[in-house]
Amino acid sequence: MAVAIILDLDPSAAAIVDWMAGTLEHSAGLPSYRQTGLAPHMALAAYEAADIADLAPRLDLWAAAQIPPTIRLGSLGVFGGPSGTLFLAPIVGPELLALHESFHSTFADLAPVRWPFYETGNWIPHVALAQELDSLSLAGAVEALAPGFAPIDAQLPALRVISYDPLDTLHMAMLGAGMF
Q1: 3-24 confidence digits (pLDDT tens)
Q2: Beta partners for residue 176, in sequence order
Q3: Rounded to an integer, what distance in angstroms lies between the CA atom of residue 139 and that of residue 158?
Q4: Of 45, 87, 111, 131, which is least packed with CB atoms within 10 Å of its CB?
Q5: Rounded to an integer, what distance in angstroms lies between the CA atom of residue 155 and that of residue 96?
Q6: 132-154: per-residue pLDDT in tens?
Q7: Where do the domains of the chain lie, and which CATH numbers do they carry?
């Protein structure tokens, strides 16, 4: 079962991203991430398979020791191609990169089944707004959101493990839980 390790956006930032998704759906007639059933998030890693029973206690310990990062989603971005994605791109600083590096070094034993897009040095952090868009829809999505876009400050307070088929939250841990 394919799984992803994702970081949730705080409720205030998630509400802004949700409003943007509504703009895509209602004003531009385009699909958004909301059709997936997921809340706004940033993926840290994805795996072809993972034993959640063994992984969950390790994730809890790692998450508890992390300071929840604060990020600024500073721009709109696109992954082009026949199945394009519109996303919010964070201004990538040392705090976010250190969290990503820490995760992948701590869970290096899972590397044989890790998806290469999330590897250290290959990761493009992003919060997806809409996926599976053809080039015309992708351009329309940018046109719908770009004029009113302003950077969004967000905190990433929680880590979740999700499965893709079916979509389900398998585990959740709060970052920094061991610091208070």
Answers
A1: 999 999 999 999 999 999 999 9
A2: none
A3: 32
A4: 111
A5: 11
A6: 999 999 999 999 999 999 999 99
A7: 3-179 (3.90.1140.10)
Closest CA to 33 of 44, 43, 18, 45: 18
Query: Residue type at 75?
Result: S
Please tell me whether the overall predicted TM-score, pTM, comes out greater than 0.85 for this model.
Answer: yes
Collapsing DSSP to helix, strand or coil, 176 comes out as: coil
3-state per-residue secondary structure call for 14-81: HHHHHHHHHHHHHHCCCCCHHHHCCCCEEEEEEECCCCHHHHHHHHHHHHHCCCCCEEEEEEEEEECC
Q: How far is CA 86 from CA 51, 55, 148, in A?
A: 31, 31, 15
